Amino acid sequence: MAKYIVTRTSLWNGEKPVEEATPVMVHFYEEVTRFSDQQYRERVRERMEVTWEKEDGSFGGYEKELSEAWLCEIPSLEAFVDKYGRIVLFPPENKEGYYEVEIYDQHRD
Q1: What is the C-alpha separation between 95 and 28, in angstroms, rounded?
Q2: Model pTM score
Q3: Contact indicator for 28, 93 with CB cutoff of 8 Å
Q4: Phi, psi (degrees; rounded to nearest 5) at 4
Q5: Domain locations in the chain?
Q6: What is the band of 101 on the pLDDT scale with cuts at 50, 70, 90?
Q7: CA 55, CA 60: separation in Å to the nearest integer?
């Protein structure tokens, strides 16, 4: 059974997105586009330690402080969609390697 971070487009204040979710602390990453070496140094390297970079150097990032997230064991994404409706699946943006499932229950910009 895979574990996913679960969010909802209709919730903005950290409310529990589904009954099965449990709160966890996660190390999220912040991605920074490398517009130029100078901008990159000003925005990232001089303020904090860069924890990852793409091979071509076009992106880099740093680890943010621990943040609370909602984790849910999902045995089947198909069953989850049948129960909660349309979802968006995001690749891991956290040190722990959890994918994020966003329940798309409201329009977002």
Answers
A1: 6
A2: 0.71
A3: yes
A4: -130, 150
A5: 2-103
A6: very high
A7: 10
